[in-house]
Amino acid sequence: EESETSGSNTVAARSGHPIAYDDPASPSAETTAALKESKALYRVSCPGVSECVPLAECPELLLEISRQCYRGDFSLSCGVNEFEPHVCCPRVTSPTFNNQRVTATCGKSIVQGDFYNGLGAYPFVARIGFKNTKTGTFIFPCSGSIIARQIVLTSAHCALAKAESHRLSSVRVGDYDTRTDPDCGSTGFCAPVAINHAVSQIIVHPDYIEGQFHHDIALLILRTPINYTVAAQPICLHARKQDLTVGRRVQIIGWGKLSTIATKSPELQSLEVPLTSWDKCVRAYASTGALQSPQSIDGEWMCAGGEGRDACHGFGGAPLIIRDQGRYAQIGIMSFGAETCGALNMPSVYTSIAHYAPWIEANSPKAFV
Among the record's GO biological process terms, what is one (predicted)? Predict the structure, then answer.
């Protein structure tokens, strides 16, 4: 069972009014590996930082290898033995979450096409689940983004949301249409069933204060790793500010209500909006004082929207993204907006990824990256 809450504050978090969720012996691995290596028929070197490994150890390349095999292209292959093929698998090097990250492992949709917004188009968005401790049912009031196999990025107000008899329990990955499981595309292909991954740790920015919007960022550490599929992939994080110019078209992705439709859609939604100047944003929220207080830090927020349409309730914690050189990168986290969602000259406010990139990297457990 799913439900959604909504709020009526002048400045309301997009997940709705703050909701009180409050509560016999076998050969060793070394022997097996040595046996496989000894039977390799051929092996070639791999370019850059990629590494030649068995295909089973590089699941992110499985679909691409299948495509290349169909075309007779073996450029990613580096060897074969009687057990299985080997491929050049991209490896992430330090630093993990900035522009030196090996981009082959993030920000790509397996299903691609101009103007395509269906199943698999935005596989990096996840739903944050809160479990009713009395009935065992779930609600999904907000969203997050997959940035590693066991790390989901979201807003602090989402991670710490409260409602009677509920507690943050899991992250649901691989979802597209909340009415169906598994989800199937219009051409007939189906994604694997969506998986609820239990949350083992919640890391909230230490300076976040509930009820306010400063430092509205959190990491959810999952108990088990995500299996990347057509509907579940990691997104890149955009650590530069220089190219995020006023007027640039960006997208907000999540499950929730758009101002342009009467009801919340069960399907993953995407909305294109422009980046807004900081001065315009400050003027829009001047009467609330939300952006101007002694706790305000230069650069912690960014604004987008104001064209007369916006993402409203249910989008809290959702990623604001750009498409850069064929890959998606996250530039913001939905933090809050106005009660008059979608009003002209009333943009929404996002936590800046560029500002918090060092915090994200420093607080991401290295064992789970």
Answer: proteolysis
